[in-house]
Each structure stands twice: as structure tokens, then as C-alpha cells.
């Protein structure tokens, strides 16, 4: 089977993604439709674009996370780093990087990721032209941190929601008023164009891409290998106030770990506060300061993630999945899965149950 033989499932949640033609193995991203073609699909190709002076940390994130994905003993991704002028590439930190692949790598990529850069103005015409070509070819394009400025200069963010590092949000808003800037979130998924905030938000974006392509269990395994915190939703605030010093001398990490071990129990705000030895008001304030979400919002997010894993790696009936994840009933599970993932539990399970998620 060739890529052109593959069907492209519709995507009602991401109209932009629905425009992606069926000639790419990774055409359907948000619910892992790559999984439908485990034997026939080619390894998903990712080109990481370094725009000098490149941010070294941003450049390293895709190289570290995507190669960790193994599907049935085979690599889920092939990652190549490229730039306009090969050789020694200046970096934002002053430590140069040697890159030997040029912009031709973008033409064969399924996903193009633009790393953060210190060049927020006067974009290289060759790079902007290559990105526009990728957009016309309906390849998936993402940016980390200030890489969003490169996408904006190419005109790819006009009329779209996007984010960037909060420190440069005013500059982005002033220079690119056509961009529907969301300065307070970790990342924005607009189907075939994704943007993230700075620094650690690039980790969240890459894990999100893995989750879209291969499901929650695979993404969580990669997260554990990378010693990365549990999933942070894209809408979480990127700039959090400094938590007040806890009276006990510790953060709420112990209470969160305690709750994660009891997701199947009907935990209440009062029970969480009792475990943390503080009032519900203080708990809510400190919880939001540390995680960007209220205790019950965080708890629901973790329960839906647990349900997704159970759907992927077990054959439990829907009622049991709902009970073990703390979502109560099969109908409640169905509502939360549709709201969060755009598909009912049965469709989600059918997409992923055949996958071997062992690394």
C-alpha cells in the first residue's frame, strides 16, 4: 500500500487538519489515526529546523523525545535536524551547533518543527519560502518558543490562534496583529499548525504530538523515560505566580501523588485539603499556583488520562474503565472522552488496542 492508498478520517474538531490530503501516513493527528495503519505506514518523518541563532535547548527537545517512541519494536519517528546554511550554526547561548543537512529535508517531512531562535526579525527568505511550501503541501508545522516568529513572518499564523514565549508576547502582538495571540497558554493546537510557549512548554508540545499520533500510553511511557511531569494541558497558564512557601516546608507534590494513587475513589476537595493539612481555600490557592489548575480540574484531567491508558492497554468493559479511572459510569466516560478527545471510548480503543506500547 502506498500513502496515496490510505483513507483520511474526517476531523470535525480541527477543520484545518481536515484539509490534509490522504497522501501522508500521519494525516490524522489528534486521535492517533496513524495507528490504523501499523503495518503499512512509513516511519513518521520529522524535520527540525534550526534558524540561527538557534536556541540549543529547543533544538534538543525533538531529538530526545521522538526517537524514544518504539511501536512493535520499530521506531515511530525519524528525526533530522536541518538549516539553511549547513556547517557551524550560531546559537543563542553562544555554543555553536554543527548541522550537515539543508532545507531539502523539509520537502520529505511529515512534520516540520521550527526551534526557538534569537532571529525574530528579517527572516531568511529561503526559510520563509520553504515553510510556505510545506504549508501548501499540507505538512504539519509546529514551532517551539520564538520559532513562532518565523512562522508569523512566513504568514502562516495569519488569522490563526497561536502562542509564543510570554516574554515576547507584546512584540508578537505589535508586529503581527493578524495573529490571534494566546499569550497565557503552554501550546496551541490548530490542527496542521501548532505553536508552543518557551522552554519547558516545548516538552509539552512534543509529548502532545506523540499523544496525537500514537496515543496516551505511548506518550506517557516517553514522559517517564524523560522524567517529565504528568501531562499538562495546552490551555494551562505558561506564566505561573510563585507559590507561597507551604507551612509544612513541602509543596503539594505529596498530595498529588496521594490522589493519583486513588483516582478510582470519589475524592473531594475537603479530603484533598485534609491530606495536605490545610483549609480548602488555601489548598485551592496553592494548587493553582503550582499547577495552573484548580484541584478538581487537575483531578479530572488525570482521570481522563487514566481512562485513555486503560482503553489502550486493557480489554476492560467500559463500566470498569469508568470505575477504575474515577469517572463513575460508562456514560460519564463517554462524555468526557468526546469532550477531551473528540471521539467516544469505543472509537478510541479501536484505534489503539492493537499497539504494543513496550519500549
Automatic annotation (TrEMBL):
SMART domains: HTH_ARAC. This is DJ-1/PfpI family protein. InterPro entries: Class_I_gatase-like (IPR029062), DJ-1/PfpI (IPR002818), Homeodomain-like_sf (IPR009057), HTH_AraC (IPR018060), INH-QAR (IPR052158). Residues 253-351 form the HTH araC/xylS-type domain. It comes from Nocardia acididurans. Keywords: Transcription, Transcription regulation. Gene3D superfamilies: 3.40.50.880, Homeodomain-like. It holds the Pfam family DJ-1_PfpI.
Amino acid at each position: 500500500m502506498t500513502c496515496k492508498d490510505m483513507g483520511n478520517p474526517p476531523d470535525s474538531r480541527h477543520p484545518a487538519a481536515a484539509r490534509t490530503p490522504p497522501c501522508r501516513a500521519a494525516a490524522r493527528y489528534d486521535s492517533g489515526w496513524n495507528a490504523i495503519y501499523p503495518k503499512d505506514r512509513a516511519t513518521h518523518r520529522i524535520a527540525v529546523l534550526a534558524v540561527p541563532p538557534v536556541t540549543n535547548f529547543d533544538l534538543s527537545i525533538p531529538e530526545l523525545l521522538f526517537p524514544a517512541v518504539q511501536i512493535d519494536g520499530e521506531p515511530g519517528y525519524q528525526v533530522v535536524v536541518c538549516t539553511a546554511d549547513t556547517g557551524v550554526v550560531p546559537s543563542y547561548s553562544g555554543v555553536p551547533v554543527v548541522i550537515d543537512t539543508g532545507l531539502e529535508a523539509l520537502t520529505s517531512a511529515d512534520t516540520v518543527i521550527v526551534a526557538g531562535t534569537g532571529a525574530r526579525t528579517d527572516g531568511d527568505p529561503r526559510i520563509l519560502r520553504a515553510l510556505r511550501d510545506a504549508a501548501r503541501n499540507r505538512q504539519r508545522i509546529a514551532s517551539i518558543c520564538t520559532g513562532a516568529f518565523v512562522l508569523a513572518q512566513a504568514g502562516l499564523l495569519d488569522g490563526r490562534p497561536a502562542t509564543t514565549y510570554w516574554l515576547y508576547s507584546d512584540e508578537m502582538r505589535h508586529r503581527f496583529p493578524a495573529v490571534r495571540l494566546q499569550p497565557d497558554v503552554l501550546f496551541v493546537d490548530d490542527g496542521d499548525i501548532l505553536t508552543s510557549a518557551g522552554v519547558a512548554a516545548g516538552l509539552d508540545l512534543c509529548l502532545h504530538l506523540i499523544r496525537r499520533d500514537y496515543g496516551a500510553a505511548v506518550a506517557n511511557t516517553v514522559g517517564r523515560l524523560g522524567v517529565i511531569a504528568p501531562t499538562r494541558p495546552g490551555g494551562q497558564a505558561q506564566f505561573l505566580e510563585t507559590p507561597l512557601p507551604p507551612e509544612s516546608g513541602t509543596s503539594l507534590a505529596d498530595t498529588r501523588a496521594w490522589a493519583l494513587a486513588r483516582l478510582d475513589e470519589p475524592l473531594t476537595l475537603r479530603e484533598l485539603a485534609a491530606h495536605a493539612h490545610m483549609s480548602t481555600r488555601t489548598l485551592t490557592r496553592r494548587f493553582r499556583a503550582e499547577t495552573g489548575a484548580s484541584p478538581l480540574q487537575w483531578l479530572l484531567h488525570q482521570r481522563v488520562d487514566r481512562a485513555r491508558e486503560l482503553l489502550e492497554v486493557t480489554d476492560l468493559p467500559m463500566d470498569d474503565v469508568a470505575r477504575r479511572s474515577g469517572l463513575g459510569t460508562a456514560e460519564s466516560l463517554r462524555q468526557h472522552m468526546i469532550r477531551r478527545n473528540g471521539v467516544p471510548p469505543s472509537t478510541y480503543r479501536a484505534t489503539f488496542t492493537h499497539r504494543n506500547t513496550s519500549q
